[in-house]
Specification:
21% strand; alpha/beta; FAD/NAD(P)-binding domain; 7-stranded antiparallel beta sheet; 7-stranded mixed beta sheet
Length: 545
């Protein structure tokens, strides 16, 4: 079998690329996905996010190696193994981050990755009907504000009393303050990258999707990638050739793992597990990092929360409201309100993100909610300093890699997270007063050492891994600024793994924009023209100054 472009991974980036590269109607594009169909009820319903986190059929079943900064605790690590990838199972949150995030990208890979260059791709990709100076209104992915729960309104009112500014649209005017969440949602339904980009593109005769297709290794002719060996539905691997390019879009965990399996990575480590080295590239698997989240939860002494409303029989009227009007709690996702604060007045911009949920998560994990009425406020570091790495421990492509994110290894990360927890406590106390009793970490946990232990024992990922195949202009980078693997022709990586430093936001919107830009690079199109109004409304980034 032969194709022009072979895309490995039908996740967020892969869906974008499949659409854009097949748009000419002539170039043959083959998209491979290790998982199965996204035609599932829980994928379509936004609140199905809670269920999907603990559904083995749609994920890779990963957990981290013992995390040194968490006293050796392993952290469950959901990754989408389904058409649409993580955009089919994530919390639907749409956030670009701060403009200065892309100044850091520009420092690593050149001005073409700065905010002024990336903004047109954000605009191209989104359909945000309220509009805004920097927003797109006619793009592929529908973005809508979340419906606000009454308990969330109390949280927002508390923020105003604590002198936190109100942000109507954090993607248009990012900065310090509280804001309603924006979702990748089309009315009552999730709007994933598969919905936005892939579904319509599959009507073209030159694009083919093959699911349940596990790539076992990339094939080379000397130093050129010529295709991939693929096991379809558990059968013996077959070679699929790519006449133009092989594009790896498998994500920040699976892309470096597949490069390792294919012989690209730290040569000595690969030899130890029986993998023949094609290219000694030590940075593959390094620089892996993510946001780390810890929560404060409080039991409500009166009233109810989503904890009860999401269970029968109280769920019944909400089901009717969703069915008849497409509104209500089934359109909610990971959080209902957010905020951005500084860990110190000396910080030039927010470095902590707050996430309010009119519910609380059980210590069991996996998205399960407590049985009693409660609310919670989580906090994560927008730009963590801690770094981890990924290692491949077997030449067997079905063996899982070993990886850790380095959570809370940095003194600065621990210090700032402690400040964030105090913010979460202060906001909940201000919002609910004597109507709330803190249950986690609990009123007995007050000194910093005890609070740090609580964060280490209970915190979790917010599913934003990046950096493991970082882009850059230096020789040590895995990919160059055109996302081509250094030292290998015909092979690119296009997904969150190439991001050199994590955005201060969720990663879905940045990855979509990155893939939109990558499609232009691959096709030889000129860069998207810059928006004209942004310099008058918002400082672009530290790099642009």
């Amino acid at each position: 079998m032969e194709t022009d472009y072979l895309i490995i991974g039908a996740g967020t980036a892969g869906c974008v690329l499949a659409d854009r590269l097949s748009a000419d109607g002539a170039s043959k594009v083959l998209l491979l996905e290790a998982g199965g169909s996204d035609r599932r009820l829980m994928v379509r319903i936004p609140a199905g996010f809670y269920h999907l986190l603990r559904t083995p059929a749609v994920g890779w079943g990963y957990e981290t190696a013992p995390e040194p900064g968490l006293d050796g605790r392993r952290v469950p690590y959901p990754r989408g193994r389904i058409v649409g990838g993580c955009s089919s199972i994530n919390g639907l949150w749409q956030s670009r981050g701060l403009p200065s995030d892309y100044g850091a990208w520009a420092e690593a890979a050149g001005d073409e990755w700065g905010y002024s260059a990336m903004l047109p791709y954000f605009q191209r990709s989104e359909a945000y009907r309220p509009g805004g100076t920097t927003r797109g209104t006619s793009g592929k992915i529908r973005v809508e504000p979340s419906e606000i729960h009454p308990l969330t309104r109390q949280f927002f009112a508390a923020g105003r009393r604590l002198q936190l500014p109100w942000i109507e649209d954090y993607n248009d005017t990012p900065g310090e303050g509280l804001a309603p969440v924006q979702q990748t949602r089309r009315g009552r339904l999730r709007h994933s990258a598969a919905d936005a980009y892939l579904r319509g593109a599959l009507r073209r005769g030159n694009l083919q999707l093959v699911s349940n297709a596990l790539v076992t290794r990339i094939a080379f002719d000397g130093s050129r990638a010529i295709g991939a060996h693929v096991s379809i539905a558990g059968q013996e691997p077959v070679l699929i050739r790519a006449r133009r390019e092989v594009i790896l879009a498998a994500g920040a965990i699976n892309s470096p793992h597949l490069l390792h399996l294919s012989g690209i990575g730290p040569a000595e480590e690969l030899r130890r597990v029986g993998i023949t080295t094609v290219l000694d590239l030590p940075a593959v698997g390094e620089n892996l990092h993510d946001h780390y989240n810890a929560r404060v939860a409080g039991r409500l002494t009166r009233g109810s929360s989503l904890n009860q409303d999401s269970r029968f029989p109280r769920l019944v009227p909400h089901l009717f409201r969703y069915a008849l009007r497409g509104r209500g709690i089934l359109t909610y996702s990971a959080a209902n309100g957010t905020g951005f604060v500084k860990s110190s007045p000396d910080e030039p911009e927010p470095d902590l993100q707050l996430v309010f949920t009119p519910a609380s998560y059980s210590p069991e994990g996996g998205g399960k909610l407590d049985s009693f009425a409660a609310v919670s406020c989580g906090v994560w570091l927008m730009r963590p300093q801690s770094r981890g790495r990924l290692r491949t421990v077997s030449a067997d492509p079905r063996a899982k890699p070993s990886f850790h994110l380095g959570f809370l290894q940095s003194d600065s990360d621990r210090r700032r997270m402690l400040v964030g927890m105090q913010w979460a406590r202060r906001l909940l106390a201000e919002a609910f007063g004597d109507e709330i009793a803190e249950v986690r970490p609990g009123p007995e946990v007050q000194d910093e050492a005890a609070l740090l232990r609580y964060m280490q024992q209970t915190g979790a990922t917010v599913f934003h891994p990046v950096g493991s195949c970082r882009m850059g202009r230096d020789e040590a980078a895995v990919v160059d600024p055109r996302l081509q693997v250094n030292g290998i022709a015909g092979l690119r990586v296009v997904d969150a793994s190439v991001i050199p430093t994590i955005p201060s936001s969720n990663t879905h919107a940045p990855v979509v924009a990155l893939a939109e830009k990558a499609a232009d690079l691959i096709l030889g199109n000129p860069p998207a023209p810059p928006a004209t109004a942004i310099r008058t409304t918002r400082e672009l980034s530290r790099h642009d100054q």
